[in-house]
Write the structure tokens for this entry.
Amino acid sequence: MEFGTPEFWLALGQIMLINVLLSGDNAVVIALASRNLPRQQQKWAVLIGSAGAIVALVVLAFFAVKLLELDYVKMVGSVLLLWVGIKLLVPEDEGEELDASSSLKGAVKTIIIADVVMSLDNVIGMTGAAKGSMLLLCIGLAVSTPVIIFGSTLLMKLMDRFPVIVTIGGALLGYVAGEMLIVDGAIESWVNTHAHWLHTGAPLIGAGAVVAVGKYLAARQGSEAHAT
């Protein structure tokens, strides 16, 4: 995929949207981890911790790209990505509270570890959207992560006000999962020879399945909560 082509910019947009939609909790982690620090140190904790998290995610993404070159790995990644998309559409219960740190070093360490653990699903989604391009992954992370850090409050308000944004994100993950599935080395040749229609059909089926299942589970969860 060449730099500057329409396909490049489309994939970059997908990577950024996936990262933004799946990183809503990361800003909360940063705030909680650094809330006991002096004001000046809070800024450094955010900057250093976020930079460390970006570097760690690039390393994770590099290994993910290499793994996806193996047969059957894209199939597994596709299934995981479908699950991530469905999970995005189902409201989550409140998680455990993160302990704040009283030192800059401790806060930075907490931010990096928590962000990396919470962003594993982001890596799966972004790697699939990048189609093996580390350049795309690095640009996508570099551009979207600062937006998440400094604009997370606005983004969360927009998602609350316009739930369709989250639905579009879930559909996008399903679409990428469908694309990833049919280009797995174990079946790509067969698909190209006998079922070329899957190049269009599989992504659309993936997008539709994520939205349908996610909305169903969200509605059922809402009904159970109302009943109790």
